[in-house]
Structure formats: structure tokens, C-alpha cells
Amino acid sequence: MKVTSIKTTTLKALISLTKKKDKLIRQVENIEKQMEEIALHAEPGKTSFDILAAGSKSLKGPKRGARKRRSPHGFMANEIKKLLETAGDQGVSVQSVVASLQKPSSSVSVWFSNAKKAGLVVNVRRAVYRLNNAPAVVAASPVS
């Protein structure tokens, strides 16, 4: 590309973008300095959230729209399996799982639906499930 063939509008756009880039680089450098200062003053046992919260006077509570911390991967499945194992043949209701785990009923219902499709659980009655490998209690039928 020849310098003489570059249009004025293209040059102006390049200059504008270069100025924006320089400004962003300065902002990143300032943020990195702040992070280094925090890391230098960090106390053992304190998380970065504790340090930031202590230094900020405007942080009085969770920000609007702040998310709840998530449970570890597979937490709900493991807890439901424990509940199902202790319940045995009687099974456990979806509502009792919701109450004990304090999870949304939709999440628990979806878990049971998927587990039923996978053959892990079976229905005892409506919204009550038991593990599939637990022997079912069946009334004796007359042999003819």
C-alpha cells in the first residue's frame, strides 16, 4: 500500500483508533499498579475480596444483580443421591429434596427427569422417586 494512495478519512480513522488504544493501554497500566499494591499489602488468610471490600467505603453490601456463589460441580447430584440412599424403597419427594438442599424446585425437577431418563431413578408415585437399583416393594400376587 502506497502512502500517497491512503485517503484522508482512512488516516483520520487510524489516528482516532490509535488514540483510543493508547488511552486503554494507560488504563490497563493503572489497573495493574492497583493490583500490585493490593498484592503487596495482602495479609495471609484474607481473600482479594476481603481486601477490596476493606478498602472500599462504597461497598456496603452485595451489588445489585450480584450472583450467589455457585456450589461445586456435581454437588446437587451427590446430595440427592445421598438422600435417595437413606430413603431406600420409600423414595424421596421432590419437595423434600428442595427443602433440604435449598435449591430451586425447577433445578431439582430437571435433575430427577434426567436421572429417570438415564435409568438412575424410578417413580414410586407422583413426584416421589427411589434409586433404580433398590429393590421395589411389590405386593405378593397369588400364583395360579
Report the C-alpha radius of gyration, rounded: 30 Å
Weakly predicted, low-confidence segments? none
Number of strands: 3
Strand order, biggest sheet?
1-3-2
Total discrete domains: 2
Q: Measure the end-to-end span.
A: 96 Å
Q: Largest sheet at a glance?
A: 3 strands, antiparallel
Could you name the CATH class of the largest domain? Answer: Mainly Alpha
Report the CATH topology name of the largest domain. Answer: Arc Repressor Mutant, subunit A
Order of helices and strands: HHHEHHEE
What is the tally of helical segments? 5
Proportion of residues in β-strands: 5-15%
Helix/sheet category: mainly alpha
Tell me the helix content.
40-55%
CATH superfamily of the largest domain: Winged helix-like DNA-binding domain superfamily/Winged helix DNA-binding domain
Shape: elongated
The second-level CATH architecture of the largest domain is: Orthogonal Bundle
Overall pLDDT confidence: 78
Q: What would your notes on this structure say?
A:
The protein has two domains: 8-55, no CATH class; 75-131, Arc Repressor Mutant, subunit A (Orthogonal Bundle), CATH 1.10.10. Helices cover 52% and strands 8% of the residues. It contains five helices and three strands. The chain has helices at 8-40, 48-55, 75-87, 94-101, 105-117, and strands at 92-93, 121-125, 128-131. Strands 1-3-2 form a three-stranded antiparallel β-sheet. A hairpin with a 2-residue loop joins strand 2 and strand 3. The radius of gyration is 30 Å and the shape is elongated. The model has no long low-confidence stretch (mean pLDDT 78).
